[in-house]
Amino acid sequence: MTIPETMQAMVLTGHGGLDRYEWYEDWPVPEPGPTDVLIKVGACGLNNTDVNTRTGWYSKAVSEATTGGAYDEVGEEDPTWGGRPLVFPRIQGADAVGTVVAVGDKADPSLIGKRVMVNGWLRDWDDPDNMDKTGYYGSECDGGFAQYATADMRGIATVESPLSDAELATFSCSYTTAEGMLERARVGPGDTVLVPGASGGVGGALVQLARLRGARVIAMASEAKHADVAKLGPDRILPRGPEDLRAALGDEKITVVADVVGGSYWPKLIDILERGGRYTCSGAIAGPIVQFDLRTFYLRDLTFTGSTVLPPEVFENVVRYIEEGKLQPVLAATYPLRELREAQQAFIDKTHTGNIVVVP
Q1: Of 38, 40, 151, which Cα lies nearest the Cα of 94?
Q2: Which of 96, 233, 234, 353 could form a disulfide with 118 if both were Cys (CB 3.0 to 4.6 A apart)?
Q3: Could you tell me the pTM of the whole model?
Q4: Which fold has domain 6-170+329-359?
């Protein structure tokens, strides 16, 4: 096919509110590097990293919950997930799915015409397991909020699936994040996993993936979203924040809390963990600053694991589950790419249950 010289793209021009996105009809189509492929983007999912990077929420200067709006103060040196400055202008979008239309000089030409998912984690392919040498797609390089995007051929996966591009675009960030959390917490048969925020993208992924590991799963979500959460197969569903969590759980013995919420409710989650239990975290949308009683931590022999940078096999596992039909996409809504601002506001407001995708 003929590759155009320019494309439509939503470009982030600086940290702040949604007004920092600018729409372009004539942004240059990127040139693939030697080991890169050029992807005609079919769909790209939204995730919290997009929001938090735009606003600069990762900066230690910010202590409040994720709001999606501009903050009064954002540190210049640590506004991104990796604690480093972001280079502007930047095309965000980590969850890109599309068709390979061209390849670099050293890339595999047989990839042309194949449908692919992008692995959000950028790696030094001479040292792929080194966490200190990682970046994130749409953060340290341009991503999928455009008609075309490039990616290293070693950071993509071809996918054989009847699912649409929009459905596939719900998986990369949410499901690899969830799988990484469960792997760090060593979840398996015999565990009972409590999932706060189960109506979100990562929360819904945690429910499904923990079930695949043979665990019992208890989801927490606002009651208006219980019917949607029930479709994911949790063993029980609780309200979003019961005043007496222990009473709400009854005789349930919680061995793992898999959390992306944090906030003021956090101590109650820790208090109900069984002795020797595990807490795993990859987010703090309700607030990053929590009250932590060290006595609960050490007297109950608890293990805490943070989960951000993931080994390559996590993405490979998720792709395999997709191809085997073991995961259910939770596609809440699709928006045209030019309506990214509206889509991201709906994501922030939790207007929908599940994942939101933009389509060029």
Answers
A1: 151
A2: 96
A3: 0.95
A4: Quinone Oxidoreductase; Chain A, domain 1 (3.90.180)
